Amino acid sequence: MKKFLVFALLILVIAGLAFSAKLKVAFIYVGPIGDAGWTYAHEQGRQYIEKVFGNQIFTSFIESVPEGAESESVLRNFAARGYDIIFATSFGYMDPVIKISKMFPKTVFMHCSGYKTAPNVATYFGRMYEPRFLTGLIAGIMTKSNIIGYVAAHPIPEVIRGINAFALGVKYVNPEAKVHVVWSNTWYDPATEKEAAISLLDIGADVIAQHQDSPAPQQAAQSYGAYSIGYNSDMEAFAPKAYLGAPVWNWGPYYEKVVRDVMNGTWKSEQYWGGMADGVVDIVVSDLVPESVKNLVSVFKEAIIEGKFHPFTGPIYDQEGNLRVPAGEVLSDGELLEMDWFVDNVVGTIPR
């Protein structure tokens, strides 16, 4: 019996050492993993690295964590439990990440969509404005009423930049069309987002775009016999009679890179902002879109990837008629990241 107990204890010690040798990676999500949108896309990235690294890593996640101070305890708990990397996947986690990172200098914190860094904190995001512009091309051609609705989330530069990129795509193919914006002030609230979409459909919008995580705006569009543009992931199954396509995220390869860098000891704090050329953002186009329009989208997509076209190339005017970007010039990354104004074919205001 004594030999058996010693052997069992040895097995437990070996198992414990094997577990501790694994890189521990945590994810904090702002919504439920089944939202079919933003959180779902990040969860697909987590599952991707599990398949890539197998038993080399151990991952965990917590979903529906409120932004702001309430996320501090979740961040602290993961770090205190020895997680090597913590991916905080929403803008509102920014200040809590910076605060908690100072308490755990050996932990790598990755904050999605923010702008504050530290020696052990990096930021990452994607140039979603690139596929947003492409979906604007589709909407501008497919509209008949020239009233295009956009259900906007929160009035932050990320959302404003997306609206403008979409509107510039619309204008490129249809100067007569207007993009009407209604704010939901939500990331994931299907009922509120559906009502916002209906308010746009009631004024004659025949295409509805969105920046939230639920498919509710697309379902509202389908119920009205209108078209929809999704976001975050391919949501065609939720509104197949309305769905034209969506700008989508592909986080897996980037998450793989971060994990490898940490494993290899080459990780460093940076502000990553990748585009379609990196594969972190892309567009899906449904079969409701005519082949001629698909071909146009493909041409512009390739031009963007090759660096031959930028969606924010002037001349670009704001709603008051001011020239914001002279002909031939392109907005800098700094200007894009701080964007707080609408282009001239957007109808709506930005809450201050």
From TrEMBL:
The protein's name in its UniProt record: Basic membrane lipoprotein
Pfam families in UniProt: Bmp
Sequence ranges assigned to domain ABC transporter substrate-binding protein PnrA-like in this UniProt record: 23-305
Cellular component GO terms held in the UniProt record: plasma membrane
Record-linked PANTHER family: ABC TRANSPORTER SUBSTRATE-BINDING PROTEIN
Organismal lineage: Bacteria, Thermotogati, Thermotogota, Thermotogae, Kosmotogales
InterPro entries, A to Z: ABC-Purine-Binding, PnrA-like
UniProtKB keywords: Lipoprotein, Signal
